[in-house]
Amino acid sequence: MMLPQIGGDTLWVSMYAAYESLSERMKAMIEGLQVLHDGVPTFTPFLLDPATKDGPERLKKMKVEKPGCVHPMVIRHPETGRRALFVSRAYAARVLGVSEIESRHLINMLCDHCEQANFQVRWRWTEGDVAFWDNRCTIHYAANDYGVQDRQMMRVTIKGSRPLGA
User: How far apart are CA 94 and CA 43, in angstroms?
Assistant: First the structure.
């Protein structure tokens, strides 16, 4: 773990709380919608940065090995049974079955909603910290507030089940 002297915190959002706070009308509107998730647009600038080792090759491999996939906009957690939103700025590329402008605005509105401070916890890292979270009911963000300092961490991802429709 290499931490910057200032900044570099991680924020997590409870997608349970974000969903539960939506109006009943909004919940009814988004229930059953499907979203194309695709990480390529998010990671392309990083991978095409000349400082990224083997970036273009890694991007080419990502496009082949990690094609976009469709998930429900509202999921039901397979263990808790609770409903949660399943959208993020990094991956939600398009809502299926609606126009481009409706898709873009709906994703942006839901992401704005989720990013409210009352749904968040912010972790200030110290040497030796370990964090566990469930990507099925949270989104996370590394605060980009540390300038050119290094922020390096190790991550292990456990393969799990696909999100269940609500």
Answer: 17
Average pLDDT of the residues of the chain: 90
Tell me the CATH number of domain 10-165, given options 3.90.650.10, 3.30.1330.30, 3.40.50.880, 3.60.130.10: 3.60.130.10
Taking alpha carbons only, the member of 43, 92, 54, 90 closest to residue 72 is 92
What pLDDT digit, counting tens, does each position of 88-133 carry? 999 999 999 999 999 999 999 999 999 999 999 999 999 899 999 9
Q: Is the pLDDT of residue 42 over 80?
A: no
Residue ranges of the domains in the chain? 10-165
Q: Bridge-partner residues for 13, per DSSP? A: 120, 139
Tell me if 63 sits within 8 A of 55, measured CB to CB.
no
Cα separation of 109 and 99, whole Å? 15
